[in-house]
Write a structure and sequence with these properties.
The complex is a heterodimer of chains A (about 140) and B (about 160). Chain A is an alpha/beta fold and about 140 residues long. In chain A, about 45% of the residues lie in helices and about 15% in strands. Chain A is globular. In chain B, strands 3-2-4-1-5-8-9 form a seven-stranded mixed β-sheet, sandwiched between helices. Chain B has a two-stranded antiparallel sheet with strand order 6-7. Chain B is globular and about 35 Å long. The relative contact order of chain B is 0.19. The chains are: A alpha/beta (about 140), B alpha/beta (about 160). At the A-B interface, helix 2 and helix 3 of A face helix 1 and helix 3 of B.
Chain lengths: ~140, ~160
């Protein structure tokens, strides 16, 4: 089964993994690395150490928050060195939940697409009828 | 051309630069000068992507100097990012006019000593900063626009 490494500044990565455990339980294929300010080489070494210490024969997703950020840079370099490592930016809780709930049923590449789609689907504005307005979404226009 | 900012940051183009500084400076072009990166198409692609919505150009130091000198008569705002004070010296040697540098990130590595939370330097860096100061370049430390600047030349005892 594929594995997943979540990277972030501050404690967002660990907090997201912790939140996912509250929703779908413990998953031993997902782990987090929290960051402080590091030189690029130091960050690369820290991520490499985590990647090499886990079994990733079935593929590894590295999730980062910000496309173009320093974690994304380091993750991209590691993905370049490993054929079965992919980087996905803009992670959110839905993406992590998608990985946990679908990793054992989808191939690596289908899982990647599902994670991205599920993350994107979760972003949106909820626009319920205001108090006093007819609820056309529930009852129809008449 | 106006050089809105010359930033020294060993992470080059990353979140603080694109999300922190670019909306504040609103540059017409983000330029990265680095010989190693400019020699690798893959690295160039990574850094152009990192520039996001901002037009981003990657140059070797010599090519970057030529571009910056050629652009002096153009009305564009440039945000220049380099990795070390040594690169700024090389650009000066090539004839680029630089009056101020802002150090946004020189992170810990073995052999470097702490100057601030985001600035660590070794003897080579100090020598290069001293050379910049002797050429009337103002040197400040500032990682983000809304933070308190550090008079780096004074802190290093080279002002």
């Amino acid at each position: 089964m594929a594995a997943c490494l979540v990277l972030s500044h501050g404690n967002i990565a660990q907090a997201t993994v912790d939140a996912s455990r509250q929703i779908v339980g413990v998953c031993d294929r997902i782990f987090a690395l929290e960051g402080r300010e590091m030189a690029p080489r130091e960050l690369h070494q820290a991520i490499s150490k985590v990647v090499e210490s886990h079994e990733c024969e079935d593929g590894l997703f590295i999730l980062v928050g910000l496309r173009g950020g320093s974690y994304w840079h380091s993750a991209a370099r590691i993905a370049r060195q490993h054929e079965n490592v992919e980087v996905i930016s803009g992670f959110n809780l839905s993406m992590v939940l998608s990985f946990i709930t679908k990793a054992d049923t989808l191939t690596f590449h289908k899982l990647r697409e599902a994670m991205i789609q599920d993350a994107m689907r979760s972003i949106g504005r909820f626009d319920p009828p205001k108090t006093g307005e007819p609820d056309v979404t529930r009852n129809g226009p008449n | 051309m106006s050089l809105e900012m010359v930033r020294i940051d060993d992470r080059l183009i990353h979140g603080q630069v694109v999300v922190g500084w670019c909306p504040y400076l609103r540059p017409d072009r983000l330029i990265l000068c680095d010989d190693e990166i400019a020699s690798s198409e893959w690295e160039c692609e990574i850094y152009r992507d990192a520039g996001g919505e901002y037009t981003t150009s990657i140059y070797s130091i010599r090519s970057g100097a030529d571009y910056l000198k050629d652009s002096e008569s153009h009305a564009q705002k440039i945000f220049l990012v380099v990795a070390t004070p040594g690169v700024v010296l090389e650009l000066l040697d090539c004839g680029v006019k630089i009056e101020r540098v802002t150090v946004g990130g020189m992170h810990y590595q073995a052999g470097k000593r702490k100057i601030s939370n985001y600035i660590y330097i070794d003897d080579k860096d100090l020598k290069d900063f001293r050379s910049l100061a002797s050429r009337k370049v103002m040197i400040e430390g500032l990682d983000l626009p809304n933070c308190k600047p550090i008079n780096l030349a004074k802190r290093l005892g080279i002002s």
